[in-house]
Homoserine kinase (Qipengyuania atrilutea), 644 residues
Amino acid sequence: MAVYTDLGAAAMERLLGEYDVGALRSAKGIAEGVSNSNWLIETAQGRFILTMYERRIELGDLPYFLDLLDHLSAHDCPVPRTIHTKRGDSFVMVDGKAAALIEYLPGISPDRPSAEQAHNVGGALARMHLAGRDFEKTRPNTLGPQSWIDMLEECGVGGLSEIDPALPKMLTVARQTAERWPPDLPQSVIHSDLFPDNVLMLGERVSGMIDFYFACNDAMAYDLAVTHAAWSFDASDTAFDPAIGGALVEGYEAHRPLANAERKALPLLAQGACLRFIASRALDWIETPPGALVMRKDPMQFVRRLKFYAERGEKAFTPSPI
Amino acid sequence: MAVYTDLGAAAMERLLGEYDVGALRSAKGIAEGVSNSNWLIETAQGRFILTMYERRIELGDLPYFLDLLDHLSAHDCPVPRTIHTKRGDSFVMVDGKAAALIEYLPGISPDRPSAEQAHNVGGALARMHLAGRDFEKTRPNTLGPQSWIDMLEECGVGGLSEIDPALPKMLTVARQTAERWPPDLPQSVIHSDLFPDNVLMLGERVSGMIDFYFACNDAMAYDLAVTHAAWSFDASDTAFDPAIGGALVEGYEAHRPLANAERKALPLLAQGACLRFIASRALDWIETPPGALVMRKDPMQFVRRLKFYAERGEKAFTPSPI
């Protein structure tokens, strides 16, 4: 949530000169994205988001992320198009950093989603999965089961227990979950980080899915599980809202019914989703000094959600739970 | 440069419901302003800046700042209008914090201003001074000469010398400058913080003067001196650019010729302007822990500018210096 690079007016105008978007009229650094700098840009031709990639991103992955936006957008998914330069490039280099210009989409990220909103988010996710099937580029999921173990081991038992005494045993849970991980569920492009702040809505309609910088090829049902774990709990008290979770799955299945194997796997996939956020948050917690620019997120929030999924099993995903 | 308050979609919609601006379509936290949270808002009716006042602002001062925008805007100065609520209020209270909705103005803050841009900024400042003369509210300058002494004393000789060995003697300079401070120059509303990042430009034209939260009633020539000290030096090497400084004064005098007493006072007023920033930056430096959210600004930058004004005298302000 910061602008890391101070891009002056002259540099900004030079950069936009590479594009056929008309004269620059306004550029506001926006507090969006955790590891990139972002500006809301206005030119004579419209509005755009300019993203400068600061860290945590492999330059070699950029064509996957940026071409994916074009692919999904061309398949009527509500994702922003990548604006290409006059020369046809999807990104430019500025002082050794990559920068991309992306379509601006209106909409507000819901903080307390309604069931109808959750239904429509499920639908948009399913349509994204269907549209992603014929995307020609591929990218492995670098945050799969082995990575959770690696990240938690990097934290160390001492580091984990300093954050919370209940955290070290997540290493065992991660190893057990990785062993049981289903290897052959149907795959496509997945977003893998579709928290409410990565969704823009106008009323009940999904006007945008954004921040595809964790997108990869992996099991579609895992992406639904990630989204379920991200949307169905009240952020303050971690209470599960069955109406939201149920609507999300229903909305998804309205466009892409789950196979039996996928449905059976959902509880384990959701525990894996929780482990992915537990592990990355724990590592960020240890690597981020208190009082630094970036807000640290509590890994324990997802320890509680993991327990919920382990206890509730398949019932967590039924449209009308008891 | 941060968004301090996390204002969710529901709270944002509730807040905007107090205004007659149509349905909310987008809200992006923007990295602008040092001590307030700001959002760029889009509604069915247009774009606005929403500012939430976090600290450093006296609630009792808000009507001065917000009514001033309306007054100057009604007098054709390029400043954003304050949007009033359906009930006619210029600000609302949200969870104990004041928030105001302000007109969005296009434009880019110049990082390397041209002489023509400086000329037009001088002109806009003069027109603001002329328009401010019949503004009925008043506010004293709380950052006048006595405040520099107070702030530097609060830093203490130890604190000052820890920042830089050359800094403690600024306490003596501040006392001497305060003693010589001209008491009776013509007054009006002054901006008193018109750095380039508080000016929006479209090409050579001033499209907006923003961030009036240091505005007060004081000597107009002091405001010109502040602007001169803020615009006429290269930020990196503190080299004086006589073309910029000269154009600024010329542009000012095209709308409001300086009286002899004002012109004679400019070198001392500019040294006072430098002391104002030296003192507040030194205090911020001491009060801001390294690695905190806010970037600390180097007080020594203005020690060097102060020396320049002391040595150069009136010649610093002549349109065509030798």
Remarks:
- Chain A touches chain B through 33 residues (CB under 8 Å).
